[in-house]
Amino acid sequence: PRYCQLEVPGEDHEKVVNRLLDAEQYRGRCVLVVGGGDSALEAAVSLVEAGAAVVLSYRGESFSRAKPSNRQRALAAGARPGLEIILQSQVEEITPEAVRLSTPAGERVIENDVVIVCAGGILPSAFLRSCGIALETVHGKVLRA
């Protein structure tokens, strides 16, 4: 699958991945999760439960796209040590040691070992249409194929 890109310097660094496969492999590590949907919230909570120190960065003001149960779990985890949630933040640069974020309060540099980008996938619309599959979308969501 193809994933959405952040289009920032350092995004191609080996510490950047596009999905969480096994939270246990990150035990004791510092992880930045980018995104505000269900996959990002689920990843952040799973990582904290596995013993990682997690920062969750999301460009929006709230997690309105996520299921209520995932929002509640993430916000509850964010109220305890282990998960810091930074809303209205944007990744500006990824280096081997850290990530630079822009936030309403100014620039933040977050030291980390791993970046997990949960920013969604890219639908192969042209390919599907070339196969004769008609797509109906509204606001980027496929209603019917």
What would your notes on this structure say?
The protein has 145 residues and is of the alpha/beta class. The protein has a 5-stranded parallel β-sheet with strand order 1-8-2-3-4, covered by helices on one side. The protein has a 3-stranded antiparallel β-sheet with strand order 5-6-7, with no helix packed on it. Helix 1 packs across helix 2. The longest helix has 12 residues. It starts with 15 loop residues before the first strand and ends with a strand. 28% of the residues are buried.
Order of strands, widest sheet: 1-8-2-3-4
Distance between the termini: 18 Å
Average pLDDT for all residues: 86
Shape: globular
What is the strand tally? 10
Radius of gyration: 16 Å
Number of helices in the DSSP assignment: 3
Strand content: 25-35%
The portion of residues assigned to helices is 10-25%
Helix and strand succession?
A: EEHEHEEEEEHEE
Main sheet record: 5 strands, parallel
Structural classification = alpha/beta
Low-confidence stretches: 139-145
Write the topology of this structure.
Elements: E1 16-17, E2 30-34, H1 38-49, E3 53-58, H2 68-78, E4 83-87, E5 90-94, E6 98-103, E7 106-111, E8 114-117, H3 125-130, E9 136-138, E10 141-144
Parallel strand pairs: 1-8, 2-3, 2-8, 3-4
Antiparallel strand pairs: 5-6, 6-7, 9-10
Task: Considering the chains and any ligands shown, give keywords for the structure.
single chain, 145 residues, five-stranded parallel sheet, three-stranded antiparallel sheet, disordered C terminus
